[in-house]
Amino acid sequence: MTSTEPVLDQPTARLCAAIASGERADVRLAVVAPGEYGKTALLDHLETACASGGVPTVRFDQIRGVRQAEPALVLVDDAHALDDAALDELRRTAEDDRLGLVVAARPLPRPAALNDVLVRLSGQIVLRQLDQGQIETLLRAAGADNTVREWAGFVRAQTGGVPGLVRRIVIRLDRNRLAGQPGVPEPTLAELRHDLDQLDPEAIRLLIATEAGAGGDVDLLCGALGVGPDDVARVLDDVRTTGLVAADGAPLPVVGQALRSLVPAERRAAVCQRLAERQLHRGRPVLDLVRPWLGSGITGVEIAGAFRAAAEEAMATDPALAVRLFDAAVTAGVPATELGARRAEAVALAGDLDTALRLADDVIATAEATDRAEAARVAATGLAHRGMLARAAELLRWSGTVQSRAFAAIGLVATGKSADAERLLAESERSGADDPPTLLSGALSAMARGVLDSVTGSPATALSTLVSAAEMLDPVGRSVLLPDSPAALAAVLALHGGEPAIAEPLLERALRAGTGGRPMSVRHQLLLAWIAMERGDTDAAAERLAAVGTPAQPRDWLFAVALEVGIARRTSDLAALRQIWGQACAAVIRQPVDLFTFLPFGEFAVAAARLGDQDRLAPHLVRAHELLGALGDPPLWSTVLHWRELHAAMIGERPDEVRRHAAALRANAEYGPHHATMSAAAECWLKALDGDVDPDEVEAAARGLRDAGSAWDGARLAGQAAIRTTDRAAMLRLLDCARALQGAPVRGETASTDEATGMAQLSERELQVARLVVDGLTYKEVGARLFISAKTVEHHIARIRQRLGAASRTELLSQLRTLLGTSPTT
């Protein structure tokens, strides 16, 4: 296949073959198509094929002025460009029945004389755009091999399949070029630049305008060209006949690339400026129009204003795009200080809180800036995500906006200043009495009130208020920059109050709605992972944690590291626990204690005891209790912390602390069912440590923990009580309970009682050794704990392995964890 031979579809190829063979004698056909569709190539193909088939042909210009032409097939090219005299002669040729006729023309212009000719014809040869397969055929002929599909897709996207444009690219390719990344050859662009240079200035301005996004909007095109609608329609028709544009008049990508290299930037900027003026004057959205200008380098007052307006439009749906548009506005001429807080807010919503902090701080420090209050809100949000709630609350109070006061009240409560928060909310309600009751203002007000109620009122009311706030914010929350979200705070409250079933759907909905943008997405996912970890689903927790990656902000990193610690602890992976502990210590140093960090700090307290590093956590736990004291020791917030510290004290063998935390839990029991459950579980632990195990009490407490979202804690309580009782029946029952809470089969669901409850085969000493080994102690440490030698411990383990039929140490540990009903590491 030569470079000039047309690529024809099957019907057209059959028609041409019939004409060339003489099978089709009465030929009266039109070939009407835009430029670049291969009309000339088709006529050349017909001429060559007819010569081979013995069918005489003649070009129209060869018989002009001839009174009586010999019978032949007359081929006419570019009939649309013929003058009146030539068209009159062509009409007479069409009237001669001895002559066949194939007339090729563009759709426009269409003078009346040409119409007189075309109506005398009896059919049409249709030239179409090339499809993927046809382009692949051309590329293979040029030497393409493994890259043919990739190149064909590229060429079709660049050319729209227009045959002439396809060929302009393909003929410049060879085997070496086709082995590389697809791209438009420079000689192709040079050819197209020559074609574009032949167009009149109006057509060039229209191409610039349509490429800039004005295609299909006649009013915009009128503004760009400075003409009326009729003239716009005329110019559009003219450029469409060139074959260089899409249906809306916008240049095809390869043509647009040539256009950008041909037309000076200032000329393109002038057209874009007129478009911007027109659109802004009409009060219409500019985002779709302005988006293609990014990276073009065009500048000017109107251009800058259009970028700024487009950035505001993009804030609600695509903050990252808004950032690029704000940056483009600055490049185009808007002073950076004018964009101030809005630019910083867009950057923050896109997830770059560090840059947002810097931009906001610049605005706050500029005395003449008009949006310092909004900048303070943005900066405070960045500080909140860094865990600096006290400083964030100060900035928010200084900001004084409606949003800021609500967020400031939350920060004040979280740092132990509930009275100040109460006064601020009351003041905010008075000053905002005449403000419109929007979804946003209602959600933020409810959010602040719910957090305050959690320490001064009813926990149930607080949680209900936060749930309402979350649901109110979902429709509008994507574009709101939040120090924290009502869904996240509701989840934290629910985890403290034993209501994870309420928290999970709230967080899932907030993720789907994009509430708070990218910064809050990480927090929502971490809290969902926390819920999974608490119920013992460590695989799901680890999967969510892996999806988050390494969080950029200290508050999120604190939770992420605490999750790693908690997962390692619950899977008895002492090596992983030791490995992550260094990061845990660093996270603790970076994060001041506040009310919303009790969950990770509680997890760290247990891990520190397990690793013998309690003193490192002690100052932070002291601060947590000071904060609780400042708030009046609200049971909702203190119970979980005391529960974790109880376990840390048991592991660290600190009986006085064990009794103190158990007493605190006992004192909180009267404040609600969840607190009573935690208190009952604590009492069961104390009794079990003394060897006093009531299976009814333990099972009730364990199932109560499960119902509160802490199935892992419940299974551990049942399992540890089982191996501390001397009653074999109670032990088997509690082991079954532990296994059920973990989702493992109970005795009646397994092959045999002995297999299901292999612990029944072990002596009391072997049970002690098994528990300590599964806890992660070495043989030497177990021996020291039980006052026996490491060698004796090794003998015990060998006998246990033999009795349980374990094939390896790994299998042995797995069986022991299952039979104990839990992972013994606390």
Our Rg estimate from Cα atoms comes to 40 Å
Note the total helix count.
Answer: 45
Spatial shape: elongated
Record field, number of beta strands: 5
Helix content: 55-70%
Give a brief description.
This protein is mostly helical and about 850 residues long. Helices cover about 70% and strands about 0% of the residues.
What does this structure look like?
The protein is built from 45 helices and 5 strands. It is mostly helical and about 850 residues long. Strands 2-3-4-1-5 form a 5-stranded parallel sheet. Strand 2, helix 3 and strand 3 form a beta-alpha-beta unit. The protein is elongated and about 125 Å long.
Topology at a glance:
Blueprint: H1 10-21, E1 28-32, H2 39-53, E2 57-59, H3 60-63, E3 73-76, H4 84-95, E4 100-105, H5 112-118, E5 123-124, H6 132-142, H7 148-159, H8 163-170, H9 175-178, H10 186-197, H11 201-214, H12 218-225, H13 229-240, H14 253-262, H15 265-282, H16 287-290, H17 301-314, H18 319-332, H19 336-349, H20 353-364, H21 372-385, H22 389-399, H23 402-414, H24 418-431, H25 439-456, H26 459-473, H27 486-497, H28 500-513, H29 517-534, H30 538-548, H31 554-570, H32 574-590, H33 598-610, H34 614-630, H35 635-651, H36 655-668, H37 673-689, H38 695-707, H39 711-722, H40 728-741, H41 753-756, H42 764-774, H43 779-786, H44 790-804, H45 809-820
Parallel strand pairs: 1-4, 1-5, 2-3, 3-4
